[in-house]
Design goal:
Elements (H helix, E strand, L loop, with lengths): L3 E6 L5 E7 L4 E5 L13 H11 L3 E5 L16 H13 L6 E6 L2 H11 L4 E7 L11 H13 L1 H12 L5 H14 L2 H13 L13 E6 L7 H10 L4 E5 L11 H12 L13 H11 L4 H8 L3 H15 L4 H11 L8
Parallel strand pairs: 3-4, 3-5, 5-6, 6-7, 7-8
Antiparallel strand pairs: 1-2, 2-4
């Protein structure tokens, strides 16, 4: 999966980094909170999620102002500024409607943009979003989190990672905590988090005319499922899909279920969860996982780098819709009859 980086400008001259992968109908992805296009693809689970989500489409992502590879701005975060940034991204793609997907903070932003541009959105997907940010947590909890991020970004990012990705392995949580800190300053992270708490798009949902899909996890610890239900209820004809799990990040937990729901709605091919789903190399890696080998041992056996072995394992987990190496081993035992290769 290779991404091509470029730049677009908002009307006030703020430069935004934009990344494109694949070809086909544009699928514009509005990320949640902070992000970094130059570093997210280094995380195997994130890379595998985007690869599966965007297969057969032109996946377009961007770093919002002050985050990742985008330029900082003297303007404070606001819904109006978020919409201007999305204007710039979509405007650079050429004529024709786009498929639009917003996750977390990006969900109310995407809904508001779809309401303002009814002819520009073919289909709308909202994952892990909310109608009113004030309903995400009690006032004292919101104030505590904002203060923690502002005063101690390291600890704040670790606390939020625990909320966002409780189902992720400890190493993945640590990596995502580092990723958040590399994506923005504490001040920017705090301001964007505050924006999320302030957003209320309830009055705008009735103006969304594009076919819409709302996907939410039943135990989401960052955005209660009631907010997903409210989003679907506010958009005429919207379909609500509630998936099992607690993690707010779409690539943690049963990411394959998220991908399948979205791709089915967008009219893209959905891979079968069967033995033929894995490539020959992935089946080889699954066999080594089944035999109890670590990523380092798999890399040595196959003559590849350890990070590549880690990437193979993460892609296998995503394709099979499982969470752990033990589940990969169980799948292999159930679907493959050959003996695992010797170390």
């Amino acid at each position: 999966m290779r991404q091509h980086l470029g730049r677009v400008r908002t009307t006030d001259g703020t430069e935004l980094a934009i990344a494109e992968t694949g070809a086909g109908r544009p699928l514009v992805y509005v990320n949640g909170w902070v992000g970094h296009l130059g570093q997210d693809m280094a995380m195997p689970s994130v890379r595998a999620f985007y690869a599966s989500l965007g297969e057969g489409a032109r996946l377009v992502r961007y770093d919002r102002a002050g985050c990742g590879l985008s330029s900082p701005s003297g303007r404070a975060p606001s819904l109006a500024f978020e919409l201007e940034q999305l204007d710039a991204v979509v405007g650079a793609l050429g004529p024709g409607p786009v498929d639009l997907m917003g996750t977390s903070l990006g969900a109310p932003v995407a809904a508001a943009w779809a309401a303002a541009h009814p002819d520009a959105v073919r289909r709308l997907v909202l994952y892990g979003g909310w109608v009113n940010g004030a309903d995400l947590a009690p006032p004292d909890v919101r104030a505590h989190i904002l203060g923690l991020v502002e005063a101690h970004w390291g600890l704040g990012s670790e606390v939020l990672t625990g909320v966002f990705a409780p189902d992720a392995p400890p190493a993945d949580r640590a990596e995502f905590g580092r990723y958040q800190r590399a994506s923005s300053t504490a001040a920017t992270a705090r301001a964007l988090l505050a924006l999320g708490y302030e957003l209320d798009v309830g009055a705008l949902l009735g103006r969304v005319h594009a076919p819409a899909l709302v996907v939410h996890r039943a135990g989401d610890r960052a955005a209660p499922v009631a907010q997903g239900t409210a989003l679907a209820r506010g958009i005429a004809g919207a379909r609500l899909v509630v998936l099992s799990g607690r993690s707010h990040l779409p690539w943690v937990g049963d990411a394959a279920a998220v991908v399948a729901a979205v791709r089915r709605f967008l009219g893209l091919r959905v891979a079968r969860r069967a033995a033929g789903l894995l490539t020959s190399r992935q089946r080889e890696v699954a066999a080594l996982v089944s035999a109890g080998h670590t990523n380092r041992e798999i890399a040595a056996h196959l003559g590849i780098e350890e990070r590549s072995a880690e990437g193979h394992v993460e892609r296998i987990r995503l394709r099979l819709g499982v969470r752990s190496r033990a589940q990969v081993a169980a799948w292999y035992a159930a679907h493959e009859t050959g003996s695992p290769p010797a170390p």
